[in-house]
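Hi R.,

Here are the chain sequences for the assembly we discussed:
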Amino acid sequence: MKSLRSLLRRAIVPSLAVVTALLLGAVVIILTDFENLSRIGTDPLGAIGAAVGGVFNGYGAMLTGAFGDPERIRLAFENPSDRTIATAIRPITETLVAATPLIFVGLAVAISFRTGMFNIGGDGQLIVGALGATIVGVGLQTSGLPSLVILVIAIAASVVFGGLWGFIPGFLKARTGAHEVITTIMLNYIGAQVVLFALLGPALRAPGSSQPISKNMSAWVDVPSIISLPAIRLDYGFVAAMVMAAAVSLLLFRTTKGYELRAAGFNMTAARYAGMSAGGSMMLGMTLSGGLAGMGGGFLVIGATGQLTNDLSGGIGFNAIALALLAGLRPSGVVAAGLLFGALTTGGKVMGIQSGIPFDLLFFIMAMVIMFVAAPGLIRSIWRVRVPKPAPEVASVAPTAPAEPV
Amino acid sequence: MSAAVASPLPHGEGLAARRALRDARIRGATFLALGVASFYFASSSFQTPAIFGFRIYTTGRETFEVATSVGLLWMIAGLAAALVGALQLWRGATFRWRPWLLVLLAPYVTVILGALLNGTTANLTRVLSGSFELATPLTLGALAGILSERSGMFNIALEGKMLIGACVSVVVGSVVLGATGNMFAATVAGVSAAMIAGGLLGLLLAWLGIRHRVDQIIAGTVINIGAVGITNFLFLRVLGSSPELNTPPNVSAMQLPFLSEIPVLGPLLFSLRPYVYLSIILVLVLTYLIYRTRWGLRLRASGEKPAAAGTVGINVLQIRYRALLFAGLICGLAGSYLPLATAGSFQMQMTAGKGFIALAAMIFGAWHPIGAFAAALVFGFADSAQALLSILGAQVPPQLLNSVPYVVTIVVVAGVVGRVRGPASAGQPYEQG
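And here is the predicted structure of the full complex:
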């Protein structure tokens, strides 16, 4: 029972953080609903009612978009066929599809934060990793190799490319003290330009297109599907994400190397005096982090989308930061928060289509989630609840040692 | 023995001194090698002309042209590099090479520009005045960063504050312009609103960091991501359907009386937007305030050794709150520059990393306003030259040119140009007893 209670206690702040952030999002939706609010002088109750109704519309669309429409699910039970079942379960499978890269990048962020590195380069590492997978995928088009072999090589390439993109800031931090926040952000921009350059070249670009879109690789390489129904995209990339979560958990909490990584995150100076190589931990942590994000990009581009576009990531890197903090930097928490954010992402897109509330509101909601998780005092004073102290590794990711030796 | 400790000799003993001497020798050899390589490049490019034009007056089209050859420019650059290398080897570890590096930058940038243009005439007046213009948001952002970090607070949120400032200035400016039709009033209203928004975000950052002990990097990231979310949302939901909210006033170049009539220099330096003059004035004022006033001493004490500052009765937390408020005001001003002076409207994520480049300029400038201004000018020049090269169709992929500012930022932050030390306690929470 004790473990269940501690789990519940740990879940208080994250759950209230998400609820509060969604409420703030609702306030933003109401305040920007000028069409309805312009009537406030003549018909105040009706205007506010309509604006609040807009919130229910939007969030309702988000809910059905993420978990399925009860009407369609009923239809599938009454009249089960491939098509009705597919339309009924499609929202929930899309949620899992959206959760997959989020879990990969969330794990990447968690591992780097545990090492004391504030990696906000998830976007760049993901897209560069996807580029690596695309280069292999397109390059092996005429090789005649079976799909599974190409898939393995492509994923390996995505890990190498993403890992390299993570290694650079780790190396620079260890050797020169360059702050990883600035270098990873800059590498995001550079990665986007590199991918654009590669996509506009003749080698990868889809034939007949002037847009930066690569050839569609699904004809010769694909991630195998879990459920073979029409229009269901859920594939074994999701399973791979689960496996990586378990692997990261084992690495961080059951191995010596993982202990060294966490020690560097807790207290760089103490780790150094204990004879561990702090610089080595930084580089290893960032390389693993980049490799995980790159792997997420690889599965995304080979599996769900089948082709590389320059806007592939769509802010996953930033959402992953919120997600990892929400999860308390625990791999199991990353999976849970990844599912939640997958639902928000899928539902948010449906909300954008059905109610005209732009998807980008989610970034604001995510930012608020980060704020409330990082400042539990706010949650305490808003909801009047007793909250446990945050774990030390969540409270601070800043290097504890002086950044620059004199 | 104590005398030796009190006055460290330039050629002192010990590991550090030996390492410094070795570094100095490597540096000198590198400069010399650069010079030799330049002479090699010169040998093959005397035939390529390099023509740079300058506008003489702000009105009219007369230009005055400097015609030379790329080879000659390589020779000059190579000679300069070899000279610096020789000086470095001669003076050893005591040589102050960093200013010389900036001196060297000029001939090398000129020759690279000439080589890339490959014979086409370039209008340098536009490039150079453009550097001042493009440097302005970076200078202002860097000043905001200096204020915060000197007080002991990391300010990763420059980017988000600039983005919010840009959006607010556009909306308020458009509304006032639509209501009054007065360009000047609309500009003032838009800029003031942007500054207030930035200031409030600065206070939020300080409140999260000081009151709630949120890691200052995380607090900054909250503002950065939230700013992207809220401005994208507003753009898509409101500005898209009502373009009358996205037609802000336009801040155009201002011809300074008399000064703008000086030949060559007039169009180059004295017919720029008021923002540029304002940013230069702010650089000078802040330099004075930080290094010559009681307030500046207290600010620096809060960032270097807050415990000591607190012991002598300085209210460290109040200093930090105020510093972040002022930094936010300046950030808002910087943000308003983008739509009002250059783009003419608000675009999604229009800051495009300028807040982070401003941080790099701050580090490059060693947390000193004038240094940061010089660094911002270097970034501004890179940006401006890139625009020129892409217009003239130089044989470089545009994606590569677009990456240049970001690559330069990484190089700067990684300290390839030399390590500089920031305020000792920046980023660490302080508890007032």
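Chain B has two domains: 2-120, 128-413. Chain B touches chain A through 52 residues (CB under 8 Å).

Let me know if anything looks off.

Best,
T.
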